[in-house]
# Entry
Amino acid sequence: MTTPHPHDLLGTVDAFAGRRVLVVGDVMLDHFLVGRVHRLSPEAPVPVVMHDHDEYRAGGAANVALNVAALGAHASLVGVVGADEAGARLQQMLDDAGVATDGLVVDETRPTTRKMRVVTARQQQVARVDYEADDEVNGRAAQRVASLVARFGAEADVVIVSDYLKGCITGECMDAARDVASGARTPLLVDPKIPHLDLYRGVTLVTPNQAEAETATHRRIRTDADAREAARALQRRLQCTSVVITRGEHGMWVLDGGGADEPVEGALTAAAREVADVTGAGDTVIAAIALGLAAGATLSDAAALASEAAGLAVTRFGTVAVTADDLRTQLR
# Structure
């Protein structure tokens, strides 16, 4: 696989504008309680954190949608929130960023997923508290999710499923997404979780990280040859068109089965960067790949763009949205 020259990808980034992307999945609020540590507690061997301030960021599928919007496209989001302050805060953040939120379903029986991280001013995590209900949505909420997927998917150039195992992605939801994609020949991309593998049969692309690919295929990935075999095994198991395995500092392995002839396979190397935080890097990857495909790029070129975008995301703390201007600057 030939890695494109970064300058050759600038036109693809410009073509992101006006593309319509539907993001379906588990939305969450990332809450950072930031403080200073000067001593250990006399009650237990834990640090005492003196509170300084709170920060809030969109996480999960909401972060994918923010990345889509920041890259210059139109993002619609279908997900489930609770009737609580966290849900209201998350919706306001998305509205402010230009993400269409009329696809958010309010379920009064469950809380909005919120991850509260206690961190020091030097960005060291001390503890994390999760507020969530991870059972599958059901009843009227599940029906509403499926109907919204059908409604917004009909207008989308590409559909992304962002599965974090928090209950939104169900068989009914995936059936609706597949129906939309097959009817309009719309690419359907999935950022997967292993317990739901069988739900993803027949999609266009799955983007597991290396650990997920190892678990799904029961094999270790240490070399490009290992990654190639794992990608082929996943493609066979899921009957999907293509597979991208993200491998951190080792880059990506791309299996593009969308051509008329033999699949195109190969490794994309990752640029050396100082990593601050890998949280949300997978969200950036799938957003950039989706927009690349929507803009008419090959999967290998879309993955190369995603690699550049993820390289920017990991240099920053917490979940972040990489902008089109960020990406243009990096490519230049």
